[in-house]
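Example record

One chain of 219 residues, shown exactly as stored in the release files.
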Amino acid sequence: MPEDPIRVVLVDDHPVYREGLSMLLESMDGVDVAATAADGREALSVVEAADPDVVVMDVQMPRLDGIAATRELVSRHPHLAVVVLTMSEDDETVFAAMRAGARGYLVKGASQHEILRAIRSAAAGELVFGAAIARRVAEFFAAGPASAPVAEVFPQLTAREREVLDLLAAGRSNPQIAQALFLSPKTVRNNVSNIFAKLQVADRAEAIVRARDAGLGRG
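Predicted structure tokens for this chain:
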């Protein structure tokens, strides 16, 4: 049996571009354009009604911009995948979109293949960026804020578990940790459970005390 098509909502304030992209996506196998919206505020109600898998979101729009709309949509629908498709490729916009919860970022002018790949990857829970954007994201995280001492504490933990514990010690909730590290909520829950087991602590409060004693959570 063929898989259900990926349901997509397009959000863009330029009607010609929005309609053209809608027609393009409708012509692709495995994609169903469930609805379109002309701005971020309209997107909030459209997504409620259409229940899509992926939202393709512009940034510069009236009434409610794409960053704010992404943040609100991801808050309301944690499993919704948002792919930003915009003219802007400056670092500030890229990282604002990522912090808002976008799973992908493409610059307008991306090929049909790139857009389709981004939609499919985001629907599968992956992060995807255009080539130029991906290089800058990689450089940003390679430079990373983590200091050497953090890697030396709790050697029984993986690097990812230490990152999660550091944010845990800083008072972040699981959803906030998921957003900060670009992980799914389930992955964060699994990491937190592993941390409790490896540190032999009973609960979150005890884990935080252990972590703060070791110097974590103060970044």
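Notes: Residues 185-199 form the longest helix (15 residues).
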